[in-house]
Write a structure and sequence with these properties.
Elements (H helix, E strand, L loop, with lengths): L3 E3 L19 H23 L5 E6 L5 E5 L3 H27 L2 E3 L9 E3 L5 E5 L1 E3 L2 E8 L3 E7 L7 E2 L1 H7 L9 E6 L3 E15 L2 E10 L17 E3 L1 H4 L2 E6 L4 E6 L6
Parallel strand pairs: 9-14, 10-13
Antiparallel strand pairs: 1-3, 2-3, 4-13, 5-6, 6-16, 7-8, 8-9, 8-12, 10-14, 11-12, 12-13, 15-16
Length: about 260
């Protein structure tokens, strides 16, 4: 029986959750690498189940899967690749949610301008709207206040180098980078970091992964340009049910009741 090695054509471009821990300490990095690899392996073995024509040999830390193809494997490989792309993302997202759960804190910081529902599952903040762009007050590491531009087209939250310095986030030369899509479609190369927490009102996610990239001032035809400290992406607001009320000037986040799989 002919055996062929397939080690390169399943190199996948995953969301940033894959490598967000690389700037942490060694023990944390190892732990998260193990979690990611377990998610990759589970996805690969599920997709290979029932396919006698291919066998999963190993998976690299970046998600590259190495597969041995037997007779008929060439026909099954495209379906396996498509399945693996989808399932790996789903399982990585589930692992990230489990490791950094979204929550509504019971006692928000006094510096946070928010309204918390009695059920502690809903929080609202006052927003600014400038030329149909929404500015959201956020709190990082429970003390550092900042203004983020809401951009649900960004697949990851971004902070500026200036805010990173204020937070004491180190971005040494040679720090890991990756390409992400921000500003509703723009693709840029960015540095990967984590902060202790990111909060909007009383909505908070701890050990939150984001990226560092310079952002231009927010131009306005009716007022001076506004400096923004970052972009609030779908990786944060997507963990909640979000409602924006421009007339009332509020953004509301509600915890989803969907269980983590």
């Amino acid at each position: 029986m002919a055996v062929r090695s397939l080690t390169s054509w399943l190199a996948l471009g995953f969301p940033l959750v894959v490598v967000l821990a690389v700037l942490e300490g060694c023990s944390t990095m190892k732990s998260e690498q193990e979690v990611r690899r377990a998610a990759f392996w589970e996805a690969a073995t599920e997709c290979a189940s029932g396919k006698a024509s291919l066998k999963v040999d190993r998976i690299d830390g970046d998600g590259r899967v190495h597969v041995r193809l037997f007779q008929g494997g060439q026909q099954d490989a495209p379906a396996f690749s498509s399945c693996y792309n989808q399932k790996a993302r789903e399982k990585l997202a589930a692992a990230e949610r489990a490791g950094s759960p979204a929550r509504i804190v019971e006692s928000p910081s006094p510096t946070e301008l928010s309204v918390v529902a009695a059920s502690s599952r809903v929080t609202s903040v006052t927003i600014q709207t400038i030329d149909n762009k929404i500015l959201v007050p956020v709190v990082l590491n429970e003390t550092q206040m900042a203004t983020f531009l809401l951009d649900t087209g960004a697949n990851i939250t971004v902070i500026t180098p200036n805010l990173a310095r204020r937070l004491g986030v180190e971005t040494p030369p040679g720090a890991p980078k990756t390409k992400v899509r921000i500003l509703s479609g723009q693709e840029v190369e960015v540095l990967l970091v984590r902060v202790k927490s990111l909060g909007v009102g009383s909505a908070r996610i701890e050990h939150f992964g984001l990226v560092v990239h310079e952002l231009p001032p927010l131009a306005s035809s009716a007022r001076p340009s506004v400096i923004v400290d970052g972009l609030l992406g779908a990786d944060f607001v997507g963990r909640f049910t979000m409602t924006v009320n421009p007339r009332a000037g509020t953004l509301t986040l509600q915890l989803d009741d969907l269980p983590v799989r």
